[in-house]
Structures are given as C-alpha cells and as structure tokens.
Amino acid sequence: MTAIYLIGLREGLEITLVVSILVAFLVKSDRKPLLKWVWAGVFVAAALSIGFAALLQFGIAQLSFTHQELFEAIASLVAVTFVTWMIFWMRRMARQMGKELRGRMEDAIQVGPLAIVGVAFLAVVREGLETSILFYAAAQGAADSARPIIGITLGMLTAVVLGWLLYLSAVRINLTKFFTWTGALLVLVAAGILKYAVHDFQEAGVLPGLNNLAYDISASWPPDTWYAELLRGMVNFTPAPTVFETIAWLAYGIPVLVLFLWPARTSKPAPEPVKSS
Fold first, then answer.
1. Which residues cross the membrane (predicted)?
2. What is the end-to-end Cα distance of the chain in Å, rounded?
C-alpha cells in the first residue's frame, strides 16, 4: 500500500497543481464565469481515468491464465515507461508548466467554451491515465484487494489537501525537492514493477528460468513482518527471486536512479556584447 500511496500522492499533486494553475489564471484575470468549463473538463478526464482503471482491473478476469500473465507483464512495461518519462519530464519542465498552461488557456478562451473544456481535459487526462496504469501495475500481487484502493485514495486525498493549501498560500512546499525525492522513490517502485513484468513473462512461458533462483533467504526472512511487507510493497523485494528478475531490477534501478539524481545541466548566460568606443 505504501508504493500505491506514493503514486497517488505524486500523481495527485501534479493533477492538483495543473488544475490550480488554470483556476488561478481565470480568477486573477477576472474570468470566474469560465470556471465551470474548466471543472467540466476535469470531471470528464477523471471519469475517463476511473473507467479505464476499472476496465484494467475487471476486464483481465475474463482472460485465461497465460493471457492474464502476458497482459499484466505488458501493462507493467507500459507503467515503467510512463514512470521513467514522467519523472524526467517533470524535472525538465516543472518551471515552465505554469506559463505553458496559461498560454494554452488564453488561446482557448479566444476560441470558445469547448476549447476551454479541451484544455482542462487534456491537462488532466494524461496524468489520470498514467495513474490508472501505475495503480494497476503496482497493485499486482496484493494480498488484500482493499489495500491498493485505500492506498490510492489516501494518496489522492493528501494531494488534494496539499494542493488546496498551496493555492491558498497557507503552506509552503519546496516543489523541486518534493518532486526530486518522490521521483527517486518512484524509480525504485518502477524497478519493482519491472521485476513484476519479468516474473509474469516467466509465468507465461515467454522467458525461461522461472525456477532458476538468484538466491533464497526465505528461511531467515519472515514474510509477515512489517519490514518484509514494506520492502515488498515499495521495491518488490522477495526472498527468492529468479536470476532474470534480479538482473532486471538492478539493470533498471541503478542507472536510472543515478541519471535522475545527476545534477541537471544549466545553460550559461550569453556574454554581453562589447560596446565599441
């Protein structure tokens, strides 16, 4: 549940920030009557995202065991791709996001209400569909089906409260540090999801080595302890992983984490022209 809470918090805060930027732009420019079109776009995007999550969760039950494993493996690979793209995109574009959204909304106002709905919808639905994919992939193997729902709900509610307090200027958060630390944790979560994908491919018979273990510490690793649950939920640590699972976790987790935490290059200011005397 911890990993799914983190996904809900991270993705939920991104959605909340996007919506608050659009709302603040209309409020400060004295265009409050247009807010209903923004909320309409947000509602449609939220409904589509929830419907997509339900389709993933319940539609797979109709598949055979082999097809279920293949579907879950492919969904996990898509989720890892989304996580990787999202954290690097946010690190690069966070400072320009507000300016870009305000520019799109200004252009949409000139077109009409449907364009405003479209801007809000497109700004939210991408994050919503990403959340659905990540939730489905991270919830695989949960012992209690209620825990993933509780985790994503608590994460989203926390994000909404934080976003509302930020909008009211009642709380100050260093968003750069927040997205850096949560991004680093999500890299570890994504490594665990990739490990899920490899295991599902092995279960489906696409990859060999299902019984070829890298190590086995099951005898000294009580599965019902809090730390075992935490590590399994966050990074999919298991006491007896296969060789391919271990290679996949290390091959993704270590280099991506190093690249993400590596200081971003900043462009040097252009030299001032020399004035002729």
1. 6-27, 34-58, 70-90, 111-129, 149-171, 178-198, 243-262
2. 69
